[in-house]
Amino acid sequence: MIYQSDALTIDRLDGDIAELNFNLKGESVNKFDQATVSSLAAALDKLEGETGIKGLLVTSGKPVFIVGADITEFTGLFDAGADEIKGFTSANNANLNRLQNLPFPSCVAINGFALGGGFELCLACDFRVMSTAAKVGLPETKLGILPGWGGTVRLPRIIGVDEAATWIATAQEQRADKAMKVGAVDAVAEPEQLRAVALATLNNAVAGTLDYSARRQAKSSPLPLNDTEATMAFFTMKSMVQQQAGRNYPAPVKAVDVIEQARGMGLEEALQVEAQGFAELATTPVAAALVGVFLADQLLGKKARDWEKKADRKVARAAVLGAGIMGGGIAYQSAYKGVPILMKDINQEGLDLGLKEANKLLAKRVDRGRMSATEMGAVLNSIDPTLTYSGFDAVDIVVEAVVENAKVKHAVLAETEKHISDDTILASNTSTISITSLAEALSRPENFCGMHFFNPVHAMPLVEVIRGEKTSDHAVARTVAYANKMGKKAVVVKDCPGFLVNRVLFPYFDGFSKLLRDGADFQAVDKVMERWGWPMGPAYLMDVVGIDTGVHASAVMAEGFPDRMQLDFKSAPEVMFENQRYGQKNGKGFYAYVPDKRGKPQKTVSEETYKLMEPVVGERTEFADEDIVARMMLPMATEMARCLEEGIVGTPAEADLALLYGLGFPPFRGGVFRWMDTVGLDYIAAMSDKYADLGKVYEITEGMRAKLASGATYY
Fold it and tell me: Where would I find the 3-hydroxyacyl-CoA dehydrogenase C-terminal domain in this sequence (predicted)?
């Protein structure tokens, strides 16, 4: 044993080969936390002082190689100065430079994931052998930063500027075949042969058959591009990256800038350019938001796994009540993820529609090469359409997805309960109706909860699991376990009208209605909110959701919270509804929709909309962008704060992720609570005072006032 720590070891193998093995004690994966960085420095000290070593094999003692830096250590960087941030990157840069310059060749055996700093370590090695089951990549731009341990320097010099810029800007994980094709790795091996192939490669380098000196020279030299080639290459790349990333995500373009600035430099100088770029990005609100989203997602996943551990058994078979688009989407998702499902409807037409929806989604996967026709057939065969309750006594969970009508749901739930076993969980896919009130129809309310999917089911990650007054932990646990199995992000919330997402969405829509009442152009509002970061503005979103659905849900919310969600005027959405303009579902809403060649509805401006709204909107008025954003976002922010203060949702992180995964809230803003922290509660309070005449929904809560007084933040 040459060196040993809780993070890694160095052993001396036969043939005077040293093996550097990463195996972080107490963790399921290897990561580059500060302890590992320090251990690597100490290990290199020992290795450089060891006599007779001819080569270095780098391996992992875990199912993955190294997943990257410890992201939890990033959060402290955002308020630090550039010098401290550069210090964060410099310590491991020194390690990787020493690794690259060892007086003997090195070869890394890449198993599992080698991401971020883990892949940058691989790039510092002379040779890379990759398992067919492994993936590599530099995902830092997803976090609003760029690779900080030589990734922007070494990768372009190994695989070329175009490929490297694409890898870094897109932040995508790369499979072994692609990595081999572009020269990022030197060999690919089956998992059981990985170590042997890596050792053979290293021994060839030791014997002089493979030249490692030339590789080191290339990684330490300027890029082989003349000025004309560089100008054309970087202009094209930056244009492409800017178009794909958009103006709200600076990291991808900055990464290409860094590669360009350092193109004529050697390794040490180029690393300084990279460090400067890393420091500039690390201090932006975007990086803080995106890292916050990553950490919140880890928290959400842990909570979901903890709930699943409490489940008395796995969900092996499910059922859905009500076919159609929603029921068919639930059936597809369940079957696709390996849980056979009964799909019940009261008529054959409904079943046919549900099967058509599942078949359409599966056919898309086959067309895109993500599934074989045989696999598609197997999934379809695990969806069992039925007009009766036959087989319901053998399922673990039933999801009710019938029409959003309390009386209908009461009747269906009560009837279903008679046909299931005493311990089957019954869940409702209601989007607004109180779970506690629906449970009144049941004799076993402890086995009942909400399981609110978002449309389209296959595309939207979020599932709200709603606990009614009598819902048991047992019911929540099995429902979360089912959501996990379906590949969804489960957020457990308490019962109230609209639960969490719709409860905060409808004040946002009310803000929109008030803007139109006061003379705003709905197209202008859409454009401002889309520039702010929403994937679609409020008018377009209403059209997609369905204006009929929205008007119905708005009435439920107004009944539940009359002090702030009951409008005292006739709104533009109500006018659309009365004129049977329901949105995309019937081709006309705020906008008109005409299918393109692929059948996808294309949004066009409808002058009829303006004529219909004339009686309920004010004289056309131009509003500043800041005022539109404030009037739209404040109702959502104050209602979100109320939800947190009332215990409807457990943490700001869960609340923020619910809106990201359920509504498409702009990730670069991190969520509503993260946004409030960024702009400051003093700003929120000032805007609240400015718009106090618009109603209670613009009034900040007591909890917000307390935070403002104490200088506290949500994160």
Answer: 498-593, 628-693
pLDDT of residue 230: 87
* Nearest-10 crossing angle of helices 251-261, 227-245: 170
Mean pLDDT by 10 residues, the chain (715 residues): 96 96 95 94 95 97 94 77 82 96 98 96 98 97 96 97 96 97 97 97 96 96 90 89 91 97 96 95 93 95 96 95 92 96 95 92 92 94 96 97 93 97 96 94 97 94 97 98 97 96 97 98 98 97 94 92 95 97 94 87 91 95 97 98 98 97 96 97 97 96 97 95
* CB 513, CB 487: distance < 8 Å: no
How far is the C-alpha of 98 from the C-alpha of 222, rounded, in Å?
A: 19
Q: b/e string for 64-85 if b means 16 or more Cβ within 10 A? A: bbbbbbbbeebeebbeeeeeeb
Positive or negative CA dihedral for 190, 195, 196, 198? positive
CA distance 403 to 651: 31
Q: Which residues 6+ apart lie within 8 Å of 390 measured at CB?
A: none
Structural domains in the chain plus CATH codes: 3-283 (3.90.226.10), 314-495 (3.40.50.720), 502-582+615-710 (1.10.1040.50)
Amino acid at 439: A
| Other residues' Cβ atoms within 10 Å of the Cβ of residue 548 | 18
**∠ CA 334-477-380, rounded to 5°:** 10
- Could you tell me the two tokens for 461? 């990650």
Distance CA 597, CA 619 (A): 38
Q: Output the six-digit token pair for 404.
A: 């959003």
Q: Is 653 strand, coil or helix?
A: helix
Report helix, strand and coil shares of the chain as percent, to nearest 5. Answer: 55, 15, 30
Reported pTM: 0.91
> CA quadruple 40, 46, 48, 54: dihedral positive or negative?
negative
pLDDT tens figures, 371-386: 999 999 999 999 999 9
Helices and strands: H and E segment counts in the chain: 30, 20
Indicate the DSSP class of residue 615.
G
Q: Does residue 517 contact residue 617 with C-beta atoms inside 8 Å?
A: yes
What are the residue numbers of the active site? 452
pLDDT at 85: 84
